[in-house]
Structure formats: structure tokens, C-alpha cells
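Troubleshooting entry. Yesterday's outputs looked truncated, so today I'm pasting the complete records for two proteins to confirm everything comes through intact. If either block looks cut off, that's the bug. Protein one:
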Amino acid sequence: MRRITRIATVGVASAALALSATACGGKSSSDAGTASDGAKAAIAYDIGGKGDQSFNDAAYAGLAKAEKDLDIKGTDSEPTDGEGDADKVQRLTDLARAGNNPVIGVGFAYAPAIKKVAPKFPKVSFGIIDDSSVTDKNIANMVFNEEQGSYLAGVAAAKTTKTKTVGFIGGVETPLIKKFQAGFEQGVKATDPSVKVLSQYLTQPPNFDGFSKPDLGKAAAQGQLDKKADVVYHAAGLAGFGAIEATATAGKWAIGVDSDQYAQKGLAKYKDKILTSVTKDVSDAVYNLIKSVKDGKPESGEIRYGLAQDGVGLADSNPAYTKMTDVVTAVEKAKKDIIDGKITVKTTP
């Protein structure tokens, strides 16, 4: 069976190091040498920074691939703790002035900053992941059908649970994360209406700690485990590390997000209990934008990645998952039905 997603994975630092980097902020360059033609590209991380074992690391994988394949010099820039839009404006401005093209904001939180900065650098392409509200001729909006991948996770969870109780943990209650919740709940109920779904969020905007603090994810998962959940799916960035730790330690199944978390070195201790992950091909999105600029035909406007484009999917790296033939069959059927238009997945709970 071929892997459902094409997303790349990279070795990453431990969660503790990631939290330290987030707190310190600042910019860092990758290990690649200077590109032969001076071409440069930059990514500015979302909350949690590099080492989140998830969303940001997927973006870094795309940058690293571009460095290797396209002979460009990559720069990645960390967020500061509790930063505001003005900090993001300054970061993007600095990256653009340094000659990076494209400059990519990893996450919807960069929308206000890109709206301000992009018009000032009309010859620079700006990319933003998970947002399509800010548009201009030099802005590429890289968006995903997260609800579709989450539906497949719901199917897998409903087919796997023994207690008829599963959990969803969202980092912060935003429209984006509600797409994950909606798809997961729909997939569960469509597969087995008798399965109970426990859904909760770690924080509410403007508090975004739910994407960065593993202790919050750990406590939430423990609460769901205490209520008999035996499959827990998180969409919580670095905070999801704690959810996976608690779930795996209890001997129950965890479902990861964004990257194939079974393959992340920082989560190796828990990999055997990471059933699968809902992946977003953020890696390819970043790589494709960089390549388009390098080729002189920069992408712009909305670029959508769904199941039909292999832009979202369900990872099958864990041998334990692939041995569950009834689960795999159900997931594959659901995937085909979504692509064929037989199933329309909700984007709100």
C-alpha cells in the first residue's frame, strides 16, 4: 500500500529545546552554504517555532529540500514569546530587506503583517500558510482541506476504539482548528454513531498558549483518558507533544497532526502508540513556492491542497496501523468517496 501522503520529515530538536528557542526568538540560518547565484528564501515560524514536531517542522522540511535541490540559501526566523503584529511586521520587513525571495509566513497569524509588508516590496513574493483573507499580486495563499484529512482520522478512530470513546484536542479555538474538529467528529459518527467524541480546546484567542505549551496538552489528554477515551487526536502544535506523551504512556492510541509524527525523532519514545497522523503537505507548499520564484514564475493567489492533490492525508508509517486491514480499507473507501464527491466534509462542528 502506498503512503497516503508525500510529506517530508526531518530530524528535529527536542521539545524542550524548541520551547527555549521560542522564548529567545531571533533569526537563524540553516546549515546550507551560500547559493551560487545568490538566491535566498526565508520562512518565519508560527507559535512553537522549529522543533514543534509538527507544523513548523513541516515548513522547515520544505525549505531544507529547496536548499538541497534548488541551490538557494535558506533563512528561518523564530517567533518571540507573546509577540504582536508589530513584531511580525518587523520580522518580515527585515527578511525582505535582506534579499530573501520568497518570504513565507508560517501560519494564519501572519496575515495582518503580510497585508502591511507585501505592498512595500512589490518585487518580493510573500507566502502565507493557512490564510486566504489577504490577497495581492505578490502574495501566495497556501491553504489546505484539513477537514478532509481529519475525517479520515475519525474513520480510523471509530474503527479502532474499544471503549467507544475517542478524544479531540484543539490548541486554540479558531476557525482553522474547528475544521479539524468538524472533520474528525463527522468521520467518527459516519463510521459508528455509537462512538462518543470528547472535544475540547486548550485556550481561547487571544491566548495562543494552546499551540505552544505541552503541559496543557498533557493535562487535557489525561482528562479524556480518565473519561475512557482510548484514541486521542490532537491539533495543537507543540502542545500536542504533551497529548501524545500522556496518551502513549497510558498505552492508548494517539493520532498526530500536520507532520507524520510517527517518524519524528523527538517523539520516538512514543512512536509505537502513534496510530497515524493527519498530514498537511506544508513541505511541498513551501518548496513549490520557492521553486516558482526561482523559475521566474512566482505563484500567487489561492493555492489549495486537498485529498485530490495529495495535499492532506493520513500517514501509514506505523506497521501496527497497516496490519489493521479493516481500518485501512475503511479509510481508503472514505478517501475515495470524498475525492469522488460522495462525501462532503463539514468545515465547522
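Protein two, checking that the full record survives here as well:
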Amino acid sequence: MTRRLAWALPPAVLLAAAFLYPLSLVVRQSFQPDTGGTSLKPYTDVFASVAFREALWTTVWLALAATACCLLLGFFLALVIAFVPFPGAKAIARFVDVFLSFPSFLITLALLFLYGSVGMANGLWSEATGAASGPFQFLTTPWGVLLAEVTYFTPFVMRPLLAAFSQLDTAQVEVAASLGARPARIVRRVILPEALPALTAGGGLVLVLCLNEFGIVLFTGAKGVTTLPMLVYSKAILESDYPGACVVAVVNVLVSVGLFALYRVVSRRAGA
């Protein structure tokens, strides 16, 4: 027992020093208004603001919508790569691994080059029609942020799915097909049960990342879209309201942990 404690103590101390202590400072600052002392005033001020309520709602619905879209799109693309033979399938699977190392703002910049106000799509439209501006103006809206998040985070679902599919016994698929099962039935009865743990892992990761995503919202230039991370930045950097920024940060952490826990409960009840 003593030896186990000796092995567990160093990582526990490291975790406390690297994560728990800085987090405790944020929590403490959230109870210390600029007027001095310790009170709940920073919380009451933040909770009473319309900007906070709008940011909370925007953060939650964007994260849930992006996670759902990533699960559906990632499952479909992983199915195609793993079970539909076509030239370059292995190269695409390897590219998924490389894609995971890309920063989120890089993908957002690529979308801006394509669909931004002066992007390629609007430029082609203007050349073809003579119009002063193109019709693609959605990147600075919540739908543009959603598109960027789905584009960037879908590979985070595909990677565990491709790993799970590589371990799947293809004989089960072949037997089901030989017995006359249609592709949709094979996916539902044979492939999906094996993919549920990977879907759970990928979906949980995407949910947490979307709840805390900052770069995508910032680089799309969606001024009307304020999420909790953007509100933390605004209060700390633009307004110098550090207690308010800490309050929003604490709420952001609680929402992330709470939604992730709920996601895990739902996944377990679904048999993942």
C-alpha cells in the first residue's frame, strides 16, 4: 500500500501544481470584485447581463449542433473509407491523422479564402454576373462558425472510428451480405454496435473541444457570435474586468464538465 502511494503521489502533486492550483486562483478571483473584499457580486453582475445569457446559449447550441453533425458526417465518411474500396482510401485515412495536427484557425482561414466576402466563390459569382458582391455571406454568422467547427472537428470522430473498423471482423459483414441483408441493415445491425464505443469517444472529445473553442469564432470574424470563451477574452482583454472574466471561465468549465458527464450517461444507456 505504501509503495502504491509513493508511485501515485508524484503525478498527483504534478496535476495539482499544473492544473488544480491555477484553477483555484481563477475561482478565488471570481469572488473578489474590484472594490475589494470577497463577495458574490461578480457572479450576480455577470448572471444579470444579457451578454452572458446570450453567450451561454450560443456556446451550448453551437457545441451540441457541431457534435451531432460531426458524429453523422464522421460516421458516414469513416464507413466509406473503411468499407468502400476505391483508389487512395489508405492515403485519405493517413491524411486524417495529419489533419488532426492542424490548428483550428488554419481551417477557418481556408474557409475565408473560399467563402469570405472577398473569397473565391464570391469572386467567381461577381465575374459571372457582374454583381458588386457575391451571395456567400454566411461565414460571419453562427452558421459559418458551425460549418468551420464541423469541418475541423469531424476528423476527431473519424480517427477512432477508423481504428475500430480496422479491428472489425469482416467475415461478419460478408456473412450478413451473403444472407441477403441490405447495406443499411448491415450498418445498423453489424457495424454500428461495434462503432458505438468509438462514436462515444469521438463525440465526447468533439463536444468538449467545441464548448471551449476560441480560434474558430475569432477568425471567422463573426461579430454577432459571442461564445463563453470569447466573452472571457472580451472581459479580460478589452474591458479589464478580471473578476467577470473569471466568473465566465468558471461557468465555462462547469458547463463543459456537466455536458460531458451528461453525454457519457446518455452514451452508456445507449449501450456504448
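Both blocks look complete. Sanity check on protein two: The CA atoms of residues 78 and 158 lie 6 Å apart.
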